[in-house]
From TrEMBL:
<feature type="transmembrane region" description="Helical">
    <location>
        <begin position="59"/>
        <end position="78"/>
    </location>
</feature>
<dbReference type="Pfam" id="PF13853">
    <property type="entry name" value="7tm_4"/>
</dbReference>
<keyword id="KW-0297">G-protein coupled receptor</keyword>
<feature type="transmembrane region" description="Helical">
    <location>
        <begin position="140"/>
        <end position="165"/>
    </location>
</feature>
<keyword id="KW-0812">Transmembrane</keyword>
<feature type="transmembrane region" description="Helical">
    <location>
        <begin position="272"/>
        <end position="289"/>
    </location>
</feature>
<protein>
    <recommendedName>
        <fullName>Olfactory receptor</fullName>
    </recommendedName>
</protein>
<keyword id="KW-1003">Cell membrane</keyword>
<keyword id="KW-0552">Olfaction</keyword>
<comment type="similarity">
    <text>Belongs to the G-protein coupled receptor 1 family.</text>
</comment>
<dbReference type="InterPro" id="IPR000276">
    <property type="entry name" value="GPCR_Rhodpsn"/>
</dbReference>
<feature type="domain" description="G-protein coupled receptors family 1 profile">
    <location>
        <begin position="41"/>
        <end position="287"/>
    </location>
</feature>
<feature type="transmembrane region" description="Helical">
    <location>
        <begin position="185"/>
        <end position="215"/>
    </location>
</feature>
<dbReference type="InterPro" id="IPR000725">
    <property type="entry name" value="Olfact_rcpt"/>
</dbReference>
<feature type="transmembrane region" description="Helical">
    <location>
        <begin position="236"/>
        <end position="260"/>
    </location>
</feature>
<keyword id="KW-0675">Receptor</keyword>
<dbReference type="InterPro" id="IPR050427">
    <property type="entry name" value="Olfactory_Receptors"/>
</dbReference>
Amino acid sequence: MEGFNHSRVAEFVLLGLTDSPELQIFLVVVFSIFYLITMLGNCLILLTVISTAHLHSPMYFLLSNLSLIDMCLSSFATPKMIMDFFAQRKTISFEGCISQIFFLHLFTGTEIVLLICMSFDRYIAICKPLHYSTIMSEQVCVGLVVTSWTVGLLHTISQLAFILYLPFCGPNVVDSFFCDLPLVIHLACIDIYVLGIFMISTSGVIALLSFLLLLTSYITVLVTIKTHSSTASSKALSTCTAHFIVVFMFFGPCIFIYVWPFTNFLVDKVLSVFYTIFTPFLNPLVYTLRNQEVKAAMKKKLSYQKFNIGKTTPRYPVQ
Ligand SMILES: *[C@@H]1O[C@H](CO)[C@@H](O)[C@H](O)[C@H]1NC(C)=O
């Protein structure tokens, strides 16, 4: 109740990544290029999977759903950050800050569950190949996607319900380029240190457990591939390695920031670049460069599009 007597801050000031003008120009260029490639790459994966009949399998459906989340994840803060590089004073409204936290947790939470679903899919495909088509039916696949978003949303609500009741009465400087929970909780006008650590570490521990679960499932898959050597095994191995690289790049920073939430190092800022800019950029790269099927389908789509430019009536290839 006490919290409602304070007048709430109207906006937060973001310190951004750096003060140096030269470095800022450099980062604007680098981040803009990354953002563009991320959007184009993920868009291409999405369109390729949707429009290629032989890619209509659970693995590729989950992959295209991942691309969709990646586009969301890279869009909720990066464009504003790029624009902010040109602003003298970088600010964000209270509501804007809360919505950044909302989207950050919704998209990362959903992505984590989706990555677990993808590892489950690979586990069934490689360790229980005879039951694959019965277990991974279309309903199950849709169910996994719906579950991912539901869990992501529930996680977000639980974190936000906590922060919305905190009084923000004065301090408003966020030492990063977007609002994240550990940084913002720091600014509340009551001493919530212990509770705050507890709440945030819950996210950290869940991320850590998910990571261990993924690690175990991929190790099981790898061991299975090694013992049942077959002609398909090198392909399975490369798919799983690709999945694993993505998992590692994604979880490393998340766990670091959330398991030790009150260490406001420069490291935290650099790490947040990882999961908002680098991982969404990496996913299409890892999946497409390492996957012959997707690459071949994309090439076909791209050359077909080129061939068709200028024609008035679109024609579709006979499948
Ligand atoms: C996400 O996965 C579902 C379930 O398999 C699939 O039907 C849908 O097309 C996918 N959505 C996207 C955008 O790829």
